[in-house]
Protein backbone atom coordinates (compact mmCIF):
# COMPACT_ATOMS: atom_id res chain seq x y z
CA UNK A 1 0.00 0.00 0.00
CA UNK A 2 1.47 3.38 -1.03
CA UNK A 3 2.12 5.14 2.27
CA UNK A 4 2.72 8.80 3.03
CA UNK A 5 4.22 9.50 6.46
CA UNK A 6 3.87 13.09 7.66
CA UNK A 7 5.90 14.10 10.72
CA UNK A 8 5.65 17.33 12.68
CA UNK A 9 7.98 18.10 15.59
CA UNK A 10 10.65 20.82 15.81
CA UNK A 11 13.25 18.76 17.71
CA UNK A 12 15.04 15.94 15.84
CA UNK A 13 16.24 14.58 19.21
CA UNK A 14 12.71 14.25 20.60
CA UNK A 15 10.78 11.12 21.51
CA UNK A 16 8.32 12.09 18.80
CA UNK A 17 11.10 12.00 16.21
CA UNK A 18 12.03 8.52 17.49
CA UNK A 19 8.41 7.50 16.81
CA UNK A 20 8.75 8.89 13.27
CA UNK A 21 11.90 6.83 12.65
CA UNK A 22 10.15 3.77 14.12
CA UNK A 23 7.22 4.26 11.75
CA UNK A 24 9.50 4.48 8.72
CA UNK A 25 11.52 1.42 9.76
CA UNK A 26 8.34 -0.60 10.31
CA UNK A 27 6.70 0.39 7.02
CA UNK A 28 9.53 0.63 4.47
CA UNK A 29 10.30 -3.10 4.16
CA UNK A 30 6.70 -3.87 3.15
CA UNK A 31 5.29 -0.76 1.44
CA UNK A 32 6.34 2.01 -0.95
CA UNK A 33 6.83 4.97 1.41
CA UNK A 34 7.17 8.73 0.96
CA UNK A 35 8.07 10.80 4.01
CA UNK A 36 7.53 14.46 4.81
CA UNK A 37 9.22 16.00 7.87
CA UNK A 38 7.57 19.42 7.99
CA UNK A 39 10.02 21.12 10.34
CA UNK A 40 13.10 19.59 8.72
CA UNK A 41 12.09 20.96 5.33
CA UNK A 42 10.97 24.33 6.70
CA UNK A 43 7.42 24.04 5.40
CA UNK A 44 5.62 27.40 5.37
CA UNK A 45 2.29 26.76 7.13
CA UNK A 46 0.80 30.24 6.88
CA UNK A 47 -1.93 30.82 4.34
CA UNK A 48 -1.15 34.28 2.97
CA UNK A 49 -3.70 36.98 2.19
CA UNK A 50 -3.12 36.39 -1.54
CA UNK A 51 -3.66 32.64 -1.11
CA UNK A 52 -6.83 33.08 0.94
CA UNK A 53 -8.32 35.36 -1.72
CA UNK A 54 -7.44 32.78 -4.40
CA UNK A 55 -8.43 29.74 -2.30
CA UNK A 56 -11.75 28.89 -4.01
CA UNK A 57 -11.47 30.75 -7.31
CA UNK A 58 -7.85 29.97 -8.14
CA UNK A 59 -6.53 27.11 -5.95
CA UNK A 60 -3.84 26.47 -8.58
CA UNK A 61 -1.96 29.47 -7.15
CA UNK A 62 -1.40 27.61 -3.87
CA UNK A 63 -1.15 24.18 -5.49
CA UNK A 64 1.90 25.24 -7.49
CA UNK A 65 3.58 26.48 -4.31
CA UNK A 66 3.10 23.16 -2.50
CA UNK A 67 3.22 20.90 -5.54
CA UNK A 68 5.43 18.09 -4.10
CA UNK A 69 3.08 17.81 -1.11
CA UNK A 70 -0.03 17.69 -3.29
CA UNK A 71 1.56 15.04 -5.50
CA UNK A 72 2.47 12.93 -2.45
CA UNK A 73 -1.07 13.25 -1.07
CA UNK A 74 -2.63 12.22 -4.38
CA UNK A 75 -0.18 9.30 -4.67
CA UNK A 76 -0.92 7.85 -1.23
CA UNK A 77 -3.35 5.11 -0.24
CA UNK A 78 -2.33 5.12 3.44
CA UNK A 79 -1.72 8.29 5.46
CA UNK A 80 0.40 8.10 8.62
CA UNK A 81 0.67 11.16 10.86
CA UNK A 82 3.30 11.33 13.62
CA UNK A 83 3.07 14.42 15.83
CA UNK A 84 2.67 15.64 19.42
CA UNK A 85 -0.74 16.76 20.62
CA UNK A 86 -0.45 20.35 21.83
CA UNK A 87 -3.45 22.24 23.24
CA UNK A 88 -5.63 19.25 22.31
CA UNK A 89 -4.80 19.28 18.61
CA UNK A 90 -1.97 19.02 16.10
CA UNK A 91 0.87 21.55 16.11
CA UNK A 92 0.19 24.71 14.08
CA UNK A 93 2.71 23.58 11.45
CA UNK A 94 0.63 20.45 10.74
CA UNK A 95 -2.64 22.38 10.81
CA UNK A 96 -1.11 24.80 8.31
CA UNK A 97 -0.07 21.87 6.11
CA UNK A 98 -3.69 20.70 6.04
CA UNK A 99 -4.86 24.20 5.13
CA UNK A 100 -2.33 24.76 2.35
CA UNK A 101 -2.17 21.24 0.84
CA UNK A 102 -5.69 19.81 1.23
CA UNK A 103 -7.03 22.22 -1.35
CA UNK A 104 -10.22 22.49 -3.40
CA UNK A 105 -9.75 20.18 -6.36
CA UNK A 106 -7.28 18.07 -4.35
CA UNK A 107 -8.86 16.96 -1.07
CA UNK A 108 -12.41 18.05 -1.85
CA UNK A 109 -14.74 19.76 -4.30
CA UNK A 110 -16.57 22.69 -2.69
CA UNK A 111 -20.31 22.53 -2.13
CA UNK A 112 -22.30 24.08 -4.96
CA UNK A 113 -25.21 25.29 -2.84
CA UNK A 114 -26.18 26.09 0.73
CA UNK A 115 -26.64 23.04 2.96
CA UNK A 116 -24.70 20.74 0.65
CA UNK A 117 -21.52 19.00 1.78
CA UNK A 118 -18.25 19.26 -0.06
CA UNK A 119 -17.49 16.21 -2.21
CA UNK A 120 -14.41 14.16 -1.48
CA UNK A 121 -11.36 14.16 -3.70
CA UNK A 122 -9.57 11.54 -1.61
CA UNK A 123 -11.48 8.29 -1.86
CA UNK A 124 -8.14 6.70 -2.79
CA UNK A 125 -7.09 6.85 0.89
CA UNK A 126 -7.87 3.38 2.26
CA UNK A 127 -6.08 3.58 5.59
CA UNK A 128 -5.34 6.25 8.21
CA UNK A 129 -2.86 5.85 11.05
CA UNK A 130 -2.13 8.47 13.71
CA UNK A 131 0.77 8.19 16.15
CA UNK A 132 0.69 10.94 18.75
CA UNK A 133 1.67 11.87 22.28
CA UNK A 134 -0.04 14.20 24.71
CA UNK A 135 0.57 15.68 28.13
CA UNK A 136 -2.95 15.24 29.50
CA UNK A 137 -4.19 12.07 31.19
CA UNK A 138 -6.50 9.91 29.10
CA UNK A 139 -9.50 10.47 31.39
CA UNK A 140 -9.30 14.24 30.87
CA UNK A 141 -8.96 13.92 27.10
CA UNK A 142 -12.09 11.74 27.10
CA UNK A 143 -13.92 14.20 29.39
CA UNK A 144 -13.44 17.07 26.92
CA UNK A 145 -14.46 14.95 23.93
CA UNK A 146 -11.03 13.99 22.52
CA UNK A 147 -10.90 16.91 20.03
CA UNK A 148 -7.62 15.94 18.36
CA UNK A 149 -8.83 12.44 17.62
CA UNK A 150 -12.16 13.75 16.32
CA UNK A 151 -10.38 16.02 13.82
CA UNK A 152 -8.54 13.12 12.21
CA UNK A 153 -10.91 10.17 12.65
CA UNK A 154 -14.17 11.97 11.92
CA UNK A 155 -13.69 15.24 10.03
CA UNK A 156 -10.73 14.25 7.83
CA UNK A 157 -11.73 10.58 7.68
CA UNK A 158 -15.02 11.63 6.02
CA UNK A 159 -12.99 12.49 2.89
CA UNK A 160 -11.45 9.02 2.57
CA UNK A 161 -12.66 5.70 1.15
CA UNK A 162 -15.93 4.53 2.68
CA UNK A 163 -14.25 1.53 4.32
CA UNK A 164 -11.07 3.33 5.31
CA UNK A 165 -9.48 1.60 8.31
CA UNK A 166 -8.31 3.81 11.16
CA UNK A 167 -5.56 3.13 13.68
CA UNK A 168 -5.09 5.58 16.56
CA UNK A 169 -1.99 5.17 18.75
CA UNK A 170 -1.57 7.72 21.54
CA UNK A 171 0.68 7.90 24.58
CA UNK A 172 -1.05 9.99 27.26
CA UNK A 173 0.48 11.63 30.37
CA UNK A 174 3.61 12.39 28.34
CA UNK A 175 4.96 14.77 30.98
CA UNK A 176 5.03 11.98 33.58
CA UNK A 177 5.78 8.78 31.62
CA UNK A 178 8.81 6.64 32.39
CA UNK A 179 11.51 5.44 30.04
CA UNK A 180 9.82 2.03 30.21
CA UNK A 181 6.47 3.56 29.16
CA UNK A 182 8.16 5.21 26.17
CA UNK A 183 9.93 1.99 25.23
CA UNK A 184 6.67 0.00 25.38
CA UNK A 185 4.90 2.59 23.25
CA UNK A 186 7.63 2.51 20.58
CA UNK A 187 7.36 -1.29 20.53
CA UNK A 188 3.57 -1.06 20.20
CA UNK A 189 3.86 1.38 17.28
CA UNK A 190 6.41 -0.84 15.53
CA UNK A 191 4.29 -3.98 15.98
CA UNK A 192 1.12 -2.29 14.76
CA UNK A 193 2.72 -0.78 11.65
CA UNK A 194 4.54 -4.02 10.81
CA UNK A 195 1.17 -5.80 10.83
CA UNK A 196 -0.32 -3.48 8.19
From TrEMBL:
<dbReference type="Pfam" id="PF02525">
    <property type="entry name" value="Flavodoxin_2"/>
</dbReference>
<dbReference type="GO" id="GO:0003955">
    <property type="term" value="F:NAD(P)H dehydrogenase (quinone) activity"/>
</dbReference>
<comment type="similarity">
    <text>Belongs to the NAD(P)H dehydrogenase (quinone) family.</text>
</comment>
<dbReference type="InterPro" id="IPR051545">
    <property type="entry name" value="NAD(P)H_dehydrogenase_qn"/>
</dbReference>
<keyword id="KW-0560">Oxidoreductase</keyword>
<protein>
    <submittedName>
        <fullName>NAD(P)H dehydrogenase (Quinone)</fullName>
    </submittedName>
</protein>
<dbReference type="GO" id="GO:0005829">
    <property type="term" value="C:cytosol"/>
</dbReference>
<dbReference type="InterPro" id="IPR003680">
    <property type="entry name" value="Flavodoxin_fold"/>
</dbReference>
<dbReference type="InterPro" id="IPR029039">
    <property type="entry name" value="Flavoprotein-like_sf"/>
</dbReference>
<feature type="domain" description="Flavodoxin-like fold">
    <location>
        <begin position="1"/>
        <end position="193"/>
    </location>
</feature>
Amino acid sequence: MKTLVVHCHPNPDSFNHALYRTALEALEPRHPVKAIDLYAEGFEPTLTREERIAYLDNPELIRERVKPHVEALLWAEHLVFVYPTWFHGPPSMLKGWLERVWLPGVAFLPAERKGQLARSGMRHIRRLTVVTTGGSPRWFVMLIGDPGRRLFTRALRALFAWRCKVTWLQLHDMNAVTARDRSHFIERVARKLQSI
